[in-house]
Structure formats: structure tokens, C-alpha cells
Amino acid sequence: MSFLDMIKKSVIAEFSNSLSTGDIFLSLLVAFIAAIIITIIYKKTYTGVSYTKSFVLSIILLAMVTSLVIRTINSNLALSLGMVGALSIVRFRTAVKDPVDTIFMFWAITAGIMSGAGLYLITLIATLILGILYVISYSFTFKASKKYLLIIKAEEGYADNLIKMFSKKKKCVLKTESYQKNRVELTYELAGRDSVSGLAKLRENKAVISINLINID
Q1: Judging by beta carbons within 10 Å of its beta carbon (0-12, 13-18, 19+), is residue 15 exposed, middle or buried?
Q2: Tens digits of per-residue pLDDT, 155-191?
């Protein structure tokens, strides 16, 4: 037997596993459970302004479809080559606005790959460990770096009082100061939830026209 025949035989042997209905069902079930864990963590830690259910469903389907692809590739050499050829012509044009969303999609794909490869217990354990570590790091980072943008419109004569009031607050920086037609617009960058306390009382002042508070994290 030549060296090339030996390589050919070893490669074909790697794809000699049979594709049973039970294996497919188990891979889908484990991928689904892992995706549910991922989506729960995503919903609990989401801080953006454009949360959509379609993205959550995409994470679940992405994990399950990936597990099917890997299970198919592991079972048959011809199917694997056809699958690679089919996937190579697919183009994804949907823009991901938040980098964290990309990480969650990659996480779902990884869970699907592990599930499709038959590593069921490792898939669930790894998903739980990653989720716990992410929630811990998120809670520390979120509390430490939460920032706001405060925009206040008021009568021009009340500008000095506002500037003096916010100069006493910690982690409060005046970014812009604009005057127009007897009105003033002040923009502050605030850090921490404590720095935005007292805005309810300020809103009751007749000299204050409007208050806008924007989360910029």
C-alpha cells in the first residue's frame, strides 16, 4: 500500500461514523439548552437601546444550525465537502452595531460546534462557566464605568446657579455651554448613578426648561 493510499484510507476512516436520529436529536437539544443559557445572560446584561427579540432568536437558531452542520460534516466526507462549498458562497450583510453582540454570536457558534462534535457535557459546563465569569466581570465593569450625558436648557439668568450647583458634584464635567435668545444649554458628562441625584427637584424649578439624561455606555 502506497503512502497516498494510507492517507486516503485514514481520512475516509475519520468520516465513517453513522448519522443516527438519536445523535441529531441530542446535539440539537444540547445546543438549544446552551443557547437558552446564552440568551438569558444576554438579556440580563444588555445595556443598549435597540434590543430586539429577533437577535435572541438568531442566537438560538445559530447554535442549533451549527450543531447540525458539524454533525453532518463528522458523518460523511462527501456531505462535508458539499457543505463547505455551499457555505463559502453565503454572504452576511447585516451590520452588528454592538461589539458585544458579535461575541454572543461567536459564543453561540462555539456551543453549536461543541454540541455537534458530541461534547455534550463539556458544552453545558463550558457555557455555564463562561456565563458566570461574564456576569461577574460585567457587574464590576458596569458599576464602575456607567456614564451619563446631561443636557439642561434653562433661562439665561439661571446659568450661573446651575454651573455653581454642578461644580460641587463629584465626577461631573462641563462639556459645552451654549447661549441663544435668553436661553442657555449646558452639557455635562456624569459618572456614576449618584451624580444624577437631585434632578427631580431641579426639574420643578420654573427657570429650567428641559432636562435630558442620556446613558452613553
Answers
A1: middle
A2: 888 888 888 877 777 777 888 888 887 888 888 887 7
Q: What residue ranges do the domains of the chain occupy?
A: 3-143, 146-215
CATH hierarchy code of domain 146-215: 3.30.70.260
CA 117 to chain centre: 25
Distance between CA atoms of residues 66 and 202, nearest Å? 53
Cβ-contact 109, 63 below 8 angstroms: yes
Residue 147: Cβ-neighbour burial (10 angstroms; 0-12, 13-18, 19+): middle
Residue type, 169: K
pLDDT, tens digit (0-9, with 9 covering 90-100), for 81-95: 555 555 554 555 555
If you write DSSP's letter for every residue of 113-169 in order, what string do you get? HHHHTT-HHHHHHHHHHHHHHHHHHHHHHHHHH-EEEEEEEEEGGGHHHHHHHHHTS
